[in-house]
Every structure is written in structure tokens, then in C-alpha cells.
Amino acid sequence: MRFDLGIAAESSQFVSAASLRLRLDWFNKLRWGAAAGVLGAILVVGVVLKIPLPLRPLLVTAGCLAVANLAYVLRNARIEPVNIGAEIRVVKLQMLVDLVGLTVLLNLSGGIENPLLFLYLIHVIIASLLFKGREIFQIAWLAIILFTGEVLGEYWGLLPHHHLLSASDMTHELPFILLTLASFWMVLLFCAYMGASIMNHNRTIKDELVIRQTELIEAGRAKVDFFRFVTHEVKSPVSTAQSAVETVLQIGNDELSPPLVDLLKRAVGRLEQATEIVKDLADLTRSRMLSRQNLQVIDLNRLVRRIVDNQTELAAQTEQTIRIDQPPQPVVLTSNLTMLEKIFGNLISNAVRYNTAGGQVVVQLSEHRKEIRFAVADQGIGIAPEDQDKIFEEFYRSTQAQERTNLGTGLGLSIVKKFVEELDGTITVSSLPGSGSTFRVVLPRLRALSQESRDQSTAADDSRTID
Amino acid sequence: MTKKTILVIDDDIDLVEIIRVTLENEGFGVIDAQSGERGLEKARAENPALILLDVMMGSVDEGFQVAYELRNNDATKEIPILMLTAVADQTGFDFNPSKDQDFLPVDEFLEKPISPRKLVDMVRKHLPTSV
């Protein structure tokens, strides 16, 4: 389990009881390993190396640690991680028990002679990953007190000494003791200090990241609000103006001279263009709403055929042909019809718009267990490599596109990408300028519904299955 | 033959004028109301042959509320209603005219911007054949 940095157990704004519980569960697992390690070490020392240490007390202590761990595991299984204060108290208790246990084991295996006194350091390190500054030092001081007490206890004869190294008895060598204690204090306190500083630094960074993220979300929301405002304010005047001009054209056709009629027609064309932009902006702001509602079982073959039919007239004007490549049986997907119409429709109309005269557009639909794949390939102007990421940005039009026509809004692909992502899909493009482009969309099936939707679609009659 | 009267309920006064010019050119009479309430009053009082109703006037679903009222009132329930919808209406739902028509109290949806030809065709299509 990846060990996460940056939690301060005390303030619940940093960590939840649940996430702290995950770490505690991991510690419990580690502790099993430690117990096994201690058991192994005792056996090696006592049986293999035949060092005369008090095996029974050692095994009992190790056994107590194992039992304590079992108690922790059972407690975690029984109690839900709801109360962060309770979880913190449990951690502190565990650390206390671990440190006392370590001290007892050390006493039984040589005290200051035992190089495994390094193990105290591990607890300081773990404390600095879990706690804020003050608690880290508390753990460090607890370790210091326990170890110093153990060493001085043996020095003054209050505690028994069990030789680890048979040759010498360092426990009464005062210079050695003072030196060891001094280094012990220094190292532990230094590590506590380092741990606290690093953790503070991490927390500061994390705070800043949270602020930045909030700002980004706000900016995104402001942008959507702005689009929504614009569409709302613009759509009505544009639409009414278009109706007025069309009405004049319709009713006054006989009274107006051809040049005037021509001007009015141009006006209608430009107003339609404005309406297109308003519709596109509206799509951009609505996509989240759409994808959550109005899911239905859709026959993709029929949808693709219908969209292609809509485009054949336009394609014929430049002598293009559109070929559909799809499986004979219905490809069914539960999704939002409006969004799919936009995705497929936009990609196919782009292919036609930017294709070479007389060229072919190939539309491919294929079905897989977990997803459906849709691809549109043309033989047209293509997209330069440096543009291939940017074309999905709002209002971006490549130079090739602009040379072909000035009618594009630059919003189409950004909407397509947004819709595809809202449906948890992916879209990619491969292209060579002058040879053509292929757009590929992969849409995953909704997990729970994929089998259901297949049953439903085979049972559904035409009026239920919308194309 | 007496002139058939069409009631337009829409708060966009310019659009009302456009519709008036179009329909009067076809020989219809046009009366209008700028709010749902006034529209209901005029519908009951004047008994128009057909009603053109905007989806969004004051509040988001005012158009539908008016349509339901019209259908629930004996005096007006037989009058055909054509609903005018705008591009990117923030009505909060994504209705599909061809699919949802069975459940909504209107006879047809007309999408703005309204083309005069389409308007006339729709009106003629839904007018009751007898006066």
C-alpha cells in the first residue's frame, strides 16, 4: 500500500477517520511481520547461536505483542471508522505498547549491547508520517525516556542484565553509556525535527494545491456561467431578427427588387450562423446535465444511417461518397441520444466539409464486449501534427480549415470531445496534411446495464427503440 | 366565411408583430397577450381557433402551465395549441417533441427562429376544419 504523506491526525480537515483506519490496518499487518521477525530472531539467537538469553520471557513478550495485535485487528473489524478522535487514541495506545514492548525485549536481550536499539527510530519515523509536530516529539521523548530508563536501570542494578555479548559487560562502562545515550537522544530528536519540518512543508504545499484547485473550479464555473449568459441574452434577439427578415422575404418577394432580396438572404444566412454558435455554446454548457438524464437504449446502426442520409445531399454537391462499415446485427448502446447525435453528426459533417472533391468518407462502427468503437475517415485536407491537440480546444480552427471555409465556429470538436468525455469515452485523431484524417471514438458500455440493454433491445419494438 | 382568429401568447412583442404580419397576410385575424395570465383570459373571452404559445415567458415552465390550464378548462380545451420553443431553452429537461408529444398538452412544437412558411403550414394543419 502506497504510504500517503500529509495527514495530521488531529485536525479532521486533513484526514478522515476512514483513511487513518486504512493506515492502522496496514500497521497491524506490519506488526504481524514484526512479531514473526522477533520470534525468528529469538530462535536464531537461542537455538542456533546458543546465546544464553532468557528464552521464555522473550517468547512471552513476543507473544503479548502478537496478542495485542490480534486485539487491534479484532477491534478494527468490529468498530466502524467514524470517530477520528477514537482512531487517534488507538494509534497512540499502540505506539505506547509497541515502545514498551520493544524496551522489554531489549532488556531481555542485552540492553545497551543490542544494536537493535535502532528500532526505536522506526517509531519516530512512523509518528512523523501520522502526526503533527507536537505528537512526533511526544513519541520521540517517550522512546528516549523508555530507553534511557532501561539503560540507567541496568546501570544502577535496578533491572537485571542479560548478556548478549559474552565477552564484555558494557552496561557498567559509564563513558560508553553516556556516549550511546547522547547519540540516541540526538538522533531521535533530530529525526523528530526533520519529520515535523518535512510534514509541515508538505501540508503547506497541499493547502496551496487545494486553493489552486478551488480557483480552477471557480474559473471553470465562471466560464460556463458566462456562456450560459451569452446564449440566453443573444438567442432571442437573433432568432426574432431572423424571423423578421424571413417574413419580409416571404411576403415582400414580389415587391422587392432582386438585389434587395439578395441582401436580405445574406442577412438570414449570417443570422443562422449566429444561431449555430448559440446552439453550440448551449451544448457546451448543458453536457453535464444531459449525460445524467435521458439515457435510452439506442440502435447505433440506425442512428449512423440516419445521420449519413442527412449528409448525402451535401456530399453529392462535391461528388463525395459516404460508405458505412458496420456489423449486420444491431449495435446497441444505452446512452444519451442527443449527445450521440451531436458526436456522430459533427464528425461526419466535418469529414464531408473538409474532404477532397470526389473523395470518400468511411464511417465505421464496431462492437466489442465492453465498448463500442466509432471511426470516421476522410481523404481531405488533413490536420498538421502541431494542430492535432489544439483542434479540440474551443474556438480553435486550423489554418487548413480556415483556408477551406470561414463558416466553422471552432466549437464543434470541443463539444464532441466534451460529450465523449461525459460519456466516459475517448476520442483520438490520426491525420496527414493533404491525405486525410481519421477520428476514432471509443464509448464504454454502462457497466450494470450492458447485458440488460441487449435483452431489452431484442425484445423492444420499433416504437421503443429510438434510432 | 368569418375570419379565423389566432391567439399568440408570447412576451416577445417583436415576434408577435412578425407573426401578426405573416398570419394577417394569409387572411387570419390575430390577437395577442404578453403573459400567461392575460393569455388565459383572452382565450376564454375570445375563443380563438388556434393558440400559439411560447414555452418560456416569465418563469421557466410558464408555457406548459398555461397549456395545462387551457386543456383543463372546458371553454378552451378543444383549441389546438402550437408551442414555440427557442434554441437552447433552459427548461431543465431535454424533451424530444417526436417522442414526448403523447404526454404533453400541445399539438405541435415550432422551433424558433420561426420560418413564415412553416408557421403558416403548421397553423393550417392544426386548424379545425369547421369553424
Describe the model.
The complex is a heterodimer of chains A (467) and B (131). Chain A is of the alpha+beta class. Chain A has two domains: 1-287, no CATH class; 294-459, Heat Shock Protein 90 (2-Layer Sandwich). In chain A, 62% of the residues lie in helices and 10% in strands. Chain A has helices at 17-48, 55-78, 84-108, 119-130, 133-155, 174-251, 258-292, 300-317, 337-353, 399-404, 412-422, 450-459; strands spanning 295-299, 321-325, 332-336, 360-367, 371-377, 426-432, 436-444. Chain A has a five-stranded mixed beta sheet, covered by helices on one side. In chain A, strand 4 and strand 5 (371-377) form a beta hairpin. Chain B has a single domain (5-126), classed as Response regulator (Rossmann fold). Chain B has five helices and five strands. In chain B, helix 2 packs parallel to helix 3 (62-72). Chain B starts with a strand and ends in a 5-residue tail after the last helix. The relative contact order of chain B is 0.19. At the A-B interface, helix 6 and helix 7 of A face helix 1 of B.
